[in-house]
Each structure stands twice: as structure tokens, then as C-alpha cells.
Write a structure and sequence with these properties.
There is one protein chain. The radius of gyration is 27 Å and the shape is globular. The strands form four sheets. It has a five-stranded mixed β-sheet. The protein contains 15 helices and 14 strands. Helix content is about 45%, strand content about 10%. The protein is of the alpha/beta class. It folds into three domains: about 170 residues, no CATH class; about 130 residues, Glutaredoxin (3-Layer(aba) Sandwich), CATH 3.40.30; about 110 residues, Glutaredoxin, CATH 3.40.30.10.
């Protein structure tokens, strides 16, 4: 048993020494990881230094029988904190980069990283329950032997760190060479100019909006509509690719693995463009849904997927449930998130890589009482029993003036099944709101609007019949109307 305890100590020594040293060598990455886990900016600098220092101290404790029990207690405290943070992030649908071993090894939080930390925690528990006086064999019986052992372990860890950095540098060089190759291919494509017009990869339709319907032919020329695909009651992973897209081809083996892992849970739909024969040769597996858009790529542009490859997760009800994942790194991250979630849960969605703020999806609207500019009373109970589009505007916002013009036109042709509309404004401007039938509430400090999850102006969220927010805040006229299927 004493030998087993010594092995456990050496394992934990190696884990915490590598983790601490690698974080010290990559302080910016450590700060970013802490911010991604929700730590306020004012504390990230302190903990970016304090955490690796603590890891190294606990690592050293494992080398000495007299101090090993203290190291196990400290290690268990850190690991329990890490595990709790991971579980919380996974429950929120997030997968921040764990940055566990700095640049040597870092991955999105998921089942694999959670299990790894639980195993390490169990090893620390074994040492704790063994007691202070029973921590296994001593590394050496003399101080000289101890010094030699510590030196050997230090050199081993240093070698691992150097090897990790060499692997990282090699991977980065390969990525640079691959992207240069893609640029060379793209420069020879007739349609390459199209990529110059691509916007930010996060410029997609808001989470919670219905996916626009489409009518796109498959590889045999048969027209497929989105409503045809909804019959299986499964969520979708839409993959926007191209027959001449080198990164798409490079990512395809991984996509094939994901299809096998998620078989029966997620339906993969390829939206391609280019030559029919080349598309069939590259993506046309027998069981796949592969649709071929015209060169204008109308549907891809409608959802904001201007890059290839780009992925978009859509829930079984046909609503957008992720931000656009543009590029191989973002797509891999989205795939890992999908694999780690229970997709049968209510309000499953995935945020993008750009530090997007968590939306208020799934939250009940706040209790409030207010009067609109016409003196009509309004409270939370008025939202029950009917879908409501809740918009936020400002009299000083030119885009808001345009939106109010569109609202007037929408009100003229409003159908009985259309949602209700409530507008919050941070000021009263008679010309902007003149002629509106929908309630307009002046919310000068924007406090009430913020509780609805508003972000900037003009913005809006959709509230369902139970008073629950079911979309993220849509910014801009186009995205606002997309929340109700472009009904304007």
C-alpha cells in the first residue's frame, strides 16, 4: 500500500507541477480562462498569479511524506472548485476553454475534462483518508537522495513542458501552412470575391428565431423544404460547405465521426454550393442530406453563413439554437458542446466563441406595473396567454425611427395569430411613436428593459404564452423581425 500511495503522490505532483508552470508561462491565457468562467476582470490578474503559485506549492508538498497530507487537502480544494465551475458552465450550455495545462493542453470544458478532474480528486481523497502519518514510501532516505530525486523530477517536467511547446508550435505552423494553402486555392476560384463580403462570423440570426424556410434541391434535383425535414423530431446540425472549399474537405473526417457518435440524436444537413459532381464526390454519403444551393447562396446568406465551413445548430422545433460556428476551430467546439449536452432538455442552446453574454432564455419576465404613453396600465399578467414581441428603442436612435415605421406597416396588416407587441423607450418622442397602436412604455433609465435581457437599440426578445423569454436579444430591424419569422 505504501508503494501505491507513493505512486499517487508522484502522479499528483506531476499534474499540479505541469499545470502551475504552464499557467505561469501563459498568463494571458490564464486570465482569459478565468474571465470565460465568469470571474470579474478586477480579480483575474490576482488569481492568474495566485492559482499557479498554489498549484506549484501543493505539487512540492507531494514530494515530502511530512507535507503530503497538506498538499492533498489543498489539491482537493482546488479540484473541487474546478469541478464545481465546470458543472456550472456545462449546465448553462457553455464550454469555455479550461486552460488546465496552459499551452501544452487546453480544451473546451466537457465530459472528458470533468471526469479527468474527478479522478484526480479521488486520488487526493485517498491520500487524505490515509492520514497524516501514512503517506507512503519516502522518496529517499537521505537528503542527498532526496535532492537527486527532486532534480530528476524537475528535469522530467521541464522536458515535458518543452515537448508540449514544440508540439504546440508545430501545430500552429501546420495550421498557418494549411490556411496559406486555402488562400492559394481561394485565389484561383472564380467565386472567391464573394468571401470579401463576408461579415463577422457572429453576424447570424438570433438564438430562438425560427430558421427561415427554404426550397433547395438535393443532389438528384429533388426540391427539399425545411418543413419536410422537421418530421423526425430531431435537432439539426446544418453544415455550410463548398465543393471547392479545402478546409471543408480537411474537416470532413471529423464530421463523419460526429455523425456516427450522434446517430439517432442529431440530423446532419449539408448545404453546399458549386459543381454537382464535385459536391457528390466530396460530401455525398448515402445516408446524408446534401442540398446544393445556387451560386448566389441565398439561404446561407439569409442566416449569415457567409463563410465555409460554418455550422449552425437548430432545435427539433426548427428554432435556431446556436450562434454561427465559422471555421474548423469553432465547429469542433460546437460539436463537443453538442455531444456533452442532454439535447432533450428544454431551452438547449450554444453560445459562440466571441464572449457572448448569456441571454435570458428560459427566464420568466420580471414583475412590473407601468403605464404606456396613452395612460393604459400594463403588468406582467398582460403577457400571459399570448406571444409578445418586446422591443426597446430610443428617440435618439435613427435605426429606431426606421423600426417604428416598419411597426406601423406591420400593425396595418397584422393577422389574428400574430404576436402582441410592447415597446420600451428610454425617452418620449411624439413623432416617432405617433400612430402606433401597440403600447409604448417610457423607461428612462432602461432598468426594466435590461431585466428583459435587452442589449442596445433597437433590440427585442420574444416572450411566449407563459411569460417566459424564449429568444436572445435580437439587435437591429432585420433580426428583430426574424424572431417572428420575418412577419412584417
Amino acid at each position: 500500500m505504501e508503494t501505491v500511495l507513493l505512486i499517487i503522490r508522484l502522479i499528483l505532483f506531476g499534474v499540479f507541477a505541469v499545470a502551475g508552470i504552464s499557467k505561469i508561462l501563459d498568463p494571458d491565457g490564464a486570465k482569459k480562462a478565468m474571465r470565460d468562467f465568469g470571474m470579474p476582470d478586477e480579480f483575474t490578474g490576482f488569481f492568474a498569479v495566485g492559482l499557479p503559485f498554489a498549484e506549484i506549492v501543493f505539487a512540492v508538498c507531494f514530494l515530502f511524506v511530512s507535507m503530503s497530507w497538506v498538499g492533498a487537502a489543498g489539491a482537493l480544494l482546488l479540484l473541487t472548485t474546478f469541478i464545481g465551475g465546470m458543472i456550472w458552465q456545462m449546465a448553462q450550455g457553455n464550454a469555455p476553454d479550461c486552460h488546465c495545462f496552459g499551452q501544452i493542453h487546453s480544451e473546451p470544458v466537457g465530459r472528458k475534462s470533468l471526469i479527468r478532474n474527478i479522478v484526480f480528486a479521488l486520488l487526493a481523497v485517498i491520500l487524505l483518508f490515509s492520514g497524516r502519518e501514512n503517506q507512503g514510501l519516502d522518496l529517499a532516505t537521505t537528503s542527498a537522495g532526496m535532492l537527486q530525486m527532486v532534480l530528476i523530477l524537475f528535469l522530467v517536467i521541464l522536458g515535458l513542458l518543452l515537448l508540449g511547446f514544440l508540439v504546440k508550435v508545430a501545430a500552429q505552423q501546420n495550421e498557418i501552412m494549411r490556411r496559406l494553402g486555402v488562400l492559394e486555392v481561394a485565389s484561383a476560384e472564380p467565386g472567391a470575391v464573394e468571401r470579401n463580403e463576408a461579415g463577422d462570423p457572429s453576424d447570424g440570426l438570433p438564438i430562438g428565431a425560427p430558421l427561415p424556410d427554404f426550397a433547395i434541391p438535393d443532389l438528384n434535383g429533388r426540391e427539399v423544404r425545411f418543413e419536410h425535414l422537421l418530421t423526425e423530431n430531431k435537432p439539426f446540425l446544418f453544415l455550410f460547405v463548398g465543393s471547392q472549399c479545402a478546409p471543408c474537405e480537411a474537416l470532413l473526417p471529423e464530421i463523419t465521426e460526429w455523425e456516427a457518435e450522434l446517430a439517432g440524436k442529431v440530423r446532419f444537413v449539408f448545404i453546399s454550393h458549386g459543381d454537382v459532381g464535385a459536391t457528390r464526390d466530396k460530401f455525398g454519403a448515402t445516408t446524408r442530406v446534401v442540398l446544393l444551393e445556387k451560386a448566389t447562396r441565398a439561404f446561407a446568406n439569409q442566416v449569415g453563413a457567409k463563410w465555409t465551413p460554418t455550422a449552425l445548430f437548430v432545435d427539433a422545433n426548427g428554432h435556431i439554437a446556436s450562434h454561427l460556428a465559422a471555421g474548423d476551430t469553432a465547429i469542433r467546439r460546437l460539436a463537443e458542446q453538442i455531444k456533452s449536452r442532454d439535447l432533450s432538455e428544454e431551452f438547449v442552446y450554444f453560445l459562440g466563441l466571441n464572449g457572448n453574454r448569456r441571454p435570458n432564455i428560459g427566464e420568466k419576465i420580471p414583475e412590473f406595473t407601468a403605464q404606456d404613453i396613452q395612460g393604459r396600465g400594463l403588468s406582467r399578467k398582460d403577457f400571459i396567454g399570448r406571444e409578445t414581441l418586446v422591443a426597446f428603442s430610443s428617440p435618439t436612435c435613427g435605426h429606431c425611427v426606421k423600426l417604428m415605421e416598419e411597426v406601423r406597416e406591420w400593425e396595418k396588416g397584422k393577422r389574428p395569430a400574430s404576436p402582441a407587441l410592447v415597446i420600451f423607450s428610454d425617452g418620449d418622442h411624439e413623432e416617432m411613436t405617433a400612430g402606433l397602436k401597440s403600447p409604448v412604455i417610457v423607461d428612462k433609465d432602461s432598468r426594466l428593459a435590461a431585466r428583459f435581457g435587452m442589449r442596445g437599440v433597437p433590440s427585442a426578445v420574444l416572450v411566449d404564452e407563459t411569460g417566459t423569454i424564449v429568444t436572445e436579444a435580437a439587435i437591429g430591424s432585420k433580426n428583430i423581425w426574424s424572431l417572428i419569422g420575418g412577419d412584417h
